[in-house]
Design a protein that fits this description.
3-stranded antiparallel sheet, 294 residues, globular, mainly alpha
């Protein structure tokens, strides 16, 4: 009876339910958590000390003039003020902004345009292929679960320096994804095109061990603020990418399958996306650092 609206109702109520659970379960610090185990709490606190020592000035003693800052971390330690000036003038921060934005460009493009591409170019009946449209993101999810183990192994075994592992994961994830996305636009066999799309989405999940790790590596004490900054800019592709796609499709007179204008419009968009992803990867690899900077 609800039709397509039921999807929004389901996820809306799930979000509200999660909000209630979060309110009662989450805590600001390990010491404030009501049922954390002692060994887990100590593990977190000790590693926060180590991270802060690496940052050089992450924590301050209880007698400091920063005592009025919120966030008691235990053992008389307090979190320092957010280093906004150093954060905003650090090239590595903006490298993360560009990397996050180029990654989201690819993800948002698939989320917003894949169903239309399947319908207008590959001639899929979306009423019967809804699950198929979601499979690329399942591939991405699986990759995100597996790749970090490989990245950690490369770091632990000292085959590569940490910063080069980040470069490897980011460049492989986005450059290969870009190549597969562009190649898809030249494939007219439906199943082959969808397999390439699965692969493009899946391998982009390698970025979970690329730029996603950079926030806490360059700013361990205030990684959340760095993430907030990069994610703010990274939402822009979710607005821009669909708009550009619409302009390109309209300029080529795209209507419906088997309109050649649809194929041309999407092909141009995939090339633009490949350029964005390549540029983002290049800037990231040139600016990224994998140690505390501020």
């Amino acid at each position: 009876a609800c039709g397509w609206r039921i999807v929004f109702y389901i996820w809306g109520f799930l979000g509200l339910g999660w909000m209630v659970i979060w309110h009662f379960v989450a805590a600001s610090t390990p010491n404030e958590h009501s049922w954390i185990k002692d060994d887990e709490r100590m593990y977190i606190l000790e590693n926060m000390k180590h991270a802060s020592a690496g940052a050089g000035s992450g924590l301050t003693g209880a007698g400091s003039d920063l005592d009025n800052d919120d966030g008691d971390l235990g053992d008389g330690k307090k979190r320092v003020a957010v280093p906004w000036r150093r954060m905003l003038t650090c090239p590595a921060t903006w490298g993360l902004v560009v990397a996050h934005s180029s990654y989201n460009w690819h993800s948002y493009l698939l989320m917003t345009e894949l169903p239309s591409y399947m319908k207008d170019v590959l001639d899929y009946d979306l009423a019967k292929a809804g699950i198929l449209a979601g499979l690329p993101f399942l591939c991405q999810y699986i990759c995100m679960l597996l790749i970090p183990h490989a990245a950690d192994w490369l770091i632990r075994s000292e085959h590569l320096q940490r910063v080069n592992v980040r470069r490897l994961m980011q460049s492989t994830g986005l450059l290969v994804a870009a190549f597969l996305l562009i190649t898809t636009s030249y494939i007219e066999v439906k199943i082959a095109a969808m397999l390439l799309m699965f692969a493009s989405a899946g391998i982009s999940g390698m970025c979970i061990s690329g730029f996603q790790c950079g926030h806490i590596e360059i700013c361990p004490d205030n990684a959340g603020y760095v993430m907030a900054l990069t994610n703010t800019f990274a939402t822009i592709p979710g607005i821009v990418a669909p708009l550009i796609t619409g302009v390109l499709l309209k300029s080529h007179g795209c209507h419906h399958f088997p309109d050649e204008g649809c194929k041309t419009g999407y092909r141009e968009m995939f090339w633009i996306s490949g350029g964005v992803m390549t540029l983002g990867t290049t800037i990231y690899c040139l600016t990224i650092r994998a140690h505390p900077l501020f």
